[in-house]
Structure formats: C-alpha cells, structure tokens
Design brief:
This protein is about 45% helix and about 15% strand. The protein has 14 helices and twelve strands.
C-alpha cells in the first residue's frame, strides 16, 4: 500500500442499518471537507459538537455529531475527523456521495488508516499486529493477549533489548579503537560479555514462556478420529450446539474434514470432524482418510472415538506419542466392552458426559499452554525473529577465539532481528500482508 497524499474516508462502525454510524476521515483536506459539509467553523478539538450536514443545494442531509483531531495528535498522525450520524443506508449513501465530490478525497482501502499511523510513527508494527488481533478477538484470552501487544509494552521490551545490544557494541568499539591506550580497562570486556549472557537468558526465557500464545491466538485444534459410525459428526454437532455435519447411519457419510470454532471458557477451540479411518477401495473415501490422518497429525489433541458396541480394530493410523484421549461413544447403549479401556464415556445424542469432555479438553489446553506471562510473543513471525536474535547472541558468546569485530557483528545482527519485529528494519514486504487483515475503516 503506497503512501498517499489523498484524504481518505470510510465507515468505521458496524454493518448498516444501525442506530449510529461513524464515518472516519483522515488527510490534508479533512478540515476543508468538514467546513464545507457543515457551513460552519470547526468545533474545538476532541469535543463532540452538534452540526447539520448539508448537500451542495444547502439541503439538510442529517443532524450529526462532529469530532475533529488535529494532527499529529490523532490516530493516524494527520488531521482527522469523525462524523457520528444516523446509521441508515440512505443517509450513508448521500454523505458518501458528497465526500466523493471533493477533489483529492477518496474511500479508504482496508487497513489504510492503520498504515498511515505506522508511516507517521504513531504505532510500530508490533502494536499494529496487536490491534489487528484485538479487532478479530473472539475469546477473552485472545483479547488479553492482543491488548498486551497493542499497548506498546511488548515493543518497549524489545526496544530495551535492542538498546542494550547497541550499548554493548559501543563498548566493544571503544575497546577496538583504544586497545593500545589505558582509557578502556580490561574489566570492561568481562562486564560486556556478562551483560550479553544475562540478555541471552532473558530472551531465552521469553521465547520459552510464549509457547502457548500461538494456541491462544490461532485456537486449540482438536481432531475427532475413529472408525466410520463412531459418532464423530454427532459429537461435533453436540459440542457446537448446531447441525454442522450431516449425520446418518450409513458408514462413510463424512468424506471431508469439517470444522467449527467454539469458545470454551475464554479459549478458542477448533473441533475437526474427520472421515472414518478404515481400509477402503473407494477412491473418494481414500482421500477422506488421507485428510483425516493429516488433520490428526497436526492437531493439539486427538479424541479417539469408539462406539459402545464395537470391539477395537487395528487402525490404518497409529497414534504414537501424540496427545490423545480415548472416548467411548453411544454410552447410553448396552456395553460390550469395559469402561476401563477409555478415558471418557459419552453419549452425544443424549448429552451424557459432554461436560466431563469439555473439562478434559480445557485441562489439556492449560497443560499445553502452561503459565501465560503478561508479555509473550504472539505470532510465529515474532517467535522466529526472537529465535534468530537468540542464535546471533549465542554466536557472539561462543566466538571467544574470533576477532572482536566479528563478535560485534553478531550483536548487530541480533539487534537487526529485534528491529524487524517492531518494524524498524526492512519489513516492507510484510506490510501489505499485515494491513490486509484489517477491515475497511481501520
């Protein structure tokens, strides 16, 4: 998304019709537009004032509240304004038509307001990503994680590490430049590498403590696996509270992977219903079995389902060491196998044992996430760059026999990796992807 001198506008509130709609405007012509639409002087900054918006024939379109935010003290760093009007499609259509009539004024693209905030130094890339996650948060845990990132505390942590690396390099440079003089005592070198060791331990602890953040952000994946007619689709419908999957008595009804997202006590849980795993000559069913195995192998937890009246059979897929629970289904029927063979016993159709299953899934989530610290890397991109930083710092510490200039270069590369997280260094290729996650008007 290239930088633009245009003034942009968009509906920043929810879908129409609505009781109130908020139109956001940002750019050099913002205040000219407000003055022209209202035929009055601008209100005091950051104070809502009642105005009438008029068309070019001086006819009233709507009575609105107008709030202006002079730059640079605005979300984008430019002159901004908000028009709070009645949220009917007719009102919105007329106001947008008036805005389109101004030269240099156009509708905003997805994420363009946030992109301008980034370009003008109002937010760094880490805060922008946190804001995107906050807008898309569906559960309480996702909201908490996004808020920590969007408030700038995580950015401050990484900036502090980068500054410590810069100071360390400065001391090394001093030792290189004045090696033949007495201005830099020998004790400085020891202090430098002790400080780098402490920094390495901090970064390593941070990376390790953030292992569960990706599960919170992207969801805890649970795969329902079993033979045909084991009750996988019935369980999916029972957990989601709606008919997501087709349920019949015909073996092999499910041919593809179906999924549904549920909020389980603040955690996003993604339940995957898979095709029954068995040996088959049906080409379509073989593909369904292949996809079922791939889904199970990438899941955080596998629920191995077996119905009450069937004896266990050798599966075409071996569970191995993957986290799993053995679940007896159709428990309301007469039992032909002992309960001790299973971790849980349920009857999805009658709703028996579902609460115990939910509690077991939640315990598995908490076991895999562990203790969530207040500041953790939230995305795979962050974790990758932090691991890269950690590797460079380790290389600097492990290169005692090499020239100081080489060890200093490792520290420079470490600081560069940290800079790529916040967007200070070489991230242009990422921007289009990140800002495309935003809705129009943000």
């Amino acid at each position: 998304m290239p930088a633009s001198a245009d003034t942009i506008y968009a509906l920043s509130s929810g879908a129409l019709p609505a009781g109130v709609a908020v139109i956001r405007i940002s750019g050099p012509r913002t205040f000219d537009v407000i003055t022209a639409l209202t035929a009055r002087k601008l209100p005091s900054p950051r104070r809502a004032s009642l105005y009438s918006i008029r068309n070019r024939n001086d006819e009233i379109i709507d009575q609105v509240l107008v709030v202006v935010f002079p730059g640079p003290k605005s979300f984008t760093g430019e002159d901004c304004a908000e028009i709070h009007c009645h949220g009917s499609r007719a009102v919105m259509s007329v106001i947008f038509g008036e805005l389109d009539s101004f030269e240099g004024v156009r509708p905003a693209e997805a994420g363009e307001f946030s992109r301008r905030a980034f370009d003008n130094g109002k937010m760094d890339l880490l805060e922008i990503e946190g804001l995107a996650d906050l807008l898309q948060a569906e559960t309480e845990m996702q909201r908490r994680l996004a808020v920590e990132q969007s408030t700038g505390r995580l950015s401050a942590l990484y900036e502090g590490w980068a500054n410590r690396l810069t100071r360390t390099r400065a001391l090394i440079e001093a030792e290189l430049d004045f090696a033949d003089e007495d201005d830099v005592p020998d004790s400085v070198a020891a202090q430098v590498w002790q400080a780098v060791t402490e920094l390495k331990d901090e970064i390593a602890g941070h990376v390790q403590g953030g292992g569960g953040s990706e599960i919170i952000r992207d969801g805890f994946k649970v795969a329902l696996v079993g033979e045909p007619n084991a009750g996988k689709s019935t369980l999916l419908n029972a957990l989601s509270g709606r008919d997501v999957a087709i349920v019949t008595d015909i073996a092999g009804t499910t041919r593809d992977v179906l999924s549904v997202d549920i909020n389980m006590d603040g955690y996003l849980v993604r339940i995957f219903d898979t095709a029954g795993i068995r040996e088959t000559k049906d080409v379509v069913e073989q593909e369904g079995v292949r996809r079922a195995v791939l889904t199970a192998e990438s899941a955080d937890l596998v629920l191995l389902l077996q119905d009450n009246d069937s004896s266990p059979k050798q599966s075409v897929w071996e569970i191995g060491s993957q986290r799993h629970l053995r679940v007896r289904t159709k428990a309301a029927l007469s039992a032909s196998i002992t309960r001790e063979d299973f971790d849980l016993s349920i009857s999805a159709k009658e709703g028996l044992g579902l609460e115990d299953l939910r509690l077991s899934i939640k315990r598995e989530i908490e076991a895999q996430i562990g203790v969530i610290h207040s500041l953790v890397p939230a995305r795979a991109r962050h974790k990758k760059r932090l691991e890269e930083t950690l590797n460079y710092v380790s290389d600097a510490l492990d290169s005692e026999t090499l020239d100081l200039a080489i060890r200093s270069e490792y520290l420079r590369l470490a600081a560069t990796s940290l800079g790529r997280i916040t967007g200070r260094v070489d991230v242009e290729d990422l921007l289009g992807v990140i800002f495309s996650e935003f809705c129009i008007g943000k």
